[in-house]
Amino acid sequence: MYVHKAGLQIDLRGQLAALSIAAVVILIGVPLWWRTTETYRAWLPVSQIQELANLQLQLSADVEVVFARGTVTPEQQKKVPLTLTQDDEHVVDEDTALRYRYETRYRTATIMEEDALNQPTAAEADLSLHTLSESPCGSLVVYVIPESSSLLPEDVDVYVGQRRTALLRIGAQTRVGRTLEQLLSHLEPRVKQVLQVMSFSHTDITAALSDRVRLSPGNKESIADSMRAFKSSPGYEITFSLLNPDPKSHRLHWDIEGAVQTYIQPLLRKLAPLANFSIDSQTLYYAMLGVNPRFDSSRSAYTLNSDSLAHVINPVEARLGSNAASSNPVLNFLLYVPDAHHSPLHINDHKKQEVPSNAFHSPRWGGIMVYNVNDFYGPEAAFPVDINIDMAKVMGVFLAQLRLLLGVQSSAPPPRFLVAPCSSAGIADWELDRLMWSRSVENIATATTTITSLAQLLDQIGNIVINDNIAQQVSSAVTSLQLAVAELESGNLRFALQYSKEAILASERAFFDPSLLHLLYFPDDQKFAIYIPLFLPMCVPILLSLLKIVSDARQRRREKHAKAD
After folding, report:
1. What's the CA gap between 88 and 502, in Å, rounded?
2. What is the DSSP secondary structure assignment for residue 27, as one 8-state letter?
3. Residue 204's closest CA among 235, 182, 229, 184?
4. Cis preceding linkage at 81, omega within 30
5. Do 162 and 200 fall within a single domain?
6. In Å, how far from its chain's centre is CA 61?
7. What is the pTM of this model?
8. pLDDT in tens, 224-249
9. Domain range spanning residue 552?
């Protein structure tokens, strides 16, 4: 009897011990293990990111139309000034829509503006109007002048100046017997055409969305322009290289520092709101093009055909070097001086015609110019010949290539349009605005794509750690994107560009953060391989004890039922 009671007590203590261990493991051990091994994931504004994924952009442009004397009748003048707003909507794809809002204000010219419009030439009138008042960034002023005005040639109806002003000629038959509403309806398409040339067009904005939407093959010119220019970046590296393949024949001298200050820096100062630029130069000796030119006996010169130009860049690029400390895109401009045995050297286009500039450019890479110096070799020349390079000629070519590579489009104007030539700054104010519109939209599209892709990646892979720094960068990118979209809607172009730059910087810092890769490739089978040897020896005895307790409890219950029966 005593032995039986002792056995029951021992069995009871064993069951209590097993239950205690199981309770400790389940109530304390498992939560503690779960807490200490869980992946930290900071909060992200997922709902706001989803709203940005469905991009609805509105671009608002302010246009002021000023009627000069002789363009409106006294009855029409009584109803001026007034403001009209027009919306133009385009659905790009299922997730992207564009709306263009044109807010046009009409008024008559002041006395000082009338005096400025009496200048002998359109360029002088443009300068005089600019000194009276400077239009804000992103806005335009169109001066409507009578048909009798001598500012424009007979075959020109619209003059686009270097600032943010344009001159629009109106015919006398347009205003005779018409109300002001009829006059404005006649002017509206012409003003809109001026705005598309000087501000933005649907083709340019759609091309800026190339990272987000697929471009239709209908407009080949727009696709070519978007592929030629570098993508928007916070900074660019510009490298000028002088290639001297034959130092024994000629000793080259180029004032690259002075030429950069004279020709390049004015353009870069105007482009400062878009990006930061750094410039360096180098001279490479015994650097060959890598393509053997052909001798054309009819012209007594060597030629490079257009189909061989693609093979010129790779051999030269290996000698250029790279700046490993910077991740900014590099724009390469090479000046190649042929050796005495292959001079003169001319570049032919696809029609076998000689290229006037003797230069070519490669999309998103740079440009190469061939500078012939065979005229310096006289019959009694002493080698090496000292040659001073004409930097005005060289920089004129490089400046045109730089404009193309940075996205300053020089497309042909519409019929009866006259566009003023570039000033010493290398870019007109309206060209800068046009580029800022495209860059703002491009930055917004790129940042939304980056931040949306990051949110989808983090949602699909739960092992990735989201630390506070990444959450802060994502929140900063979302806030900057919302501000950029709002500023575009308000027509504040400069602020929209600034916020869009901040958004793309924050989104890329979050997307390429190294901490995101720690647990990215950590599959579940590796987890089982780590945890099974740790938990299996401990869990099997506890599980067997629990099963024995349950089995004993069922046995006692059956015995009680048997005694009761």
Report:
1. 28
2. I
3. 229
4. yes
5. yes
6. 21
7. 0.83
8. 556 678 888 888 999 999 999 888 88
9. 1-39+521-562
